[in-house]
Amino acid sequence: MVKSLPYHDFLISHLKDPAYAAGYLETHLEDDGEELDPRLIKLALSHVAEALSEQNMTPEEAKLHREKLDELLSQQGSEAIYNLGTWLNALGLKLTVTVAEQPDNNITNTVNSSEIPV
Question: What is the pLDDT of residue 17?
Fold first, then answer.
């Protein structure tokens, strides 16, 4: 009989792919109209750190990096954003900003480039 992997081991093995890890974090950070749960964000970040630190750091550096997460998430304001970017960069990821998708039923103020008066 084929044995299944425990979920945690399965998740960490998939998160070793940086593209998968980025998508995993993106889904935890998306604003889907529900309140974000800081505990889930911390858990997602720690899962990604566990998976990616093996290929980017020594075991000692990885342990310190994961321990730094609590301090990082307790920071306020722009300092927290910059430090999160630095923390992710050490794992081979980067913090980015994209344009939010607009629902089809909203009227937007966008102008088609062919309609711009010269």
Answer: 96
Q: What is the 3-state secondary structure (H, E, C) of the chain?
A: CCCCCCHHHHHHHHHCCHHHHHHHHHHHHCCCCCCCCHHHHHHHHHHHHHHHHHHHCCHHHHHHHHHHHHHHHCCCHHHHHHHHHHHHHCCCCCCCCCCCCCCCCCCCCCCCHHHCCC
What is the mean pLDDT, run by run of 10 residues, along the chain of 118 residues?
Answer: 78 96 92 81 94 91 91 90 93 89 60 49
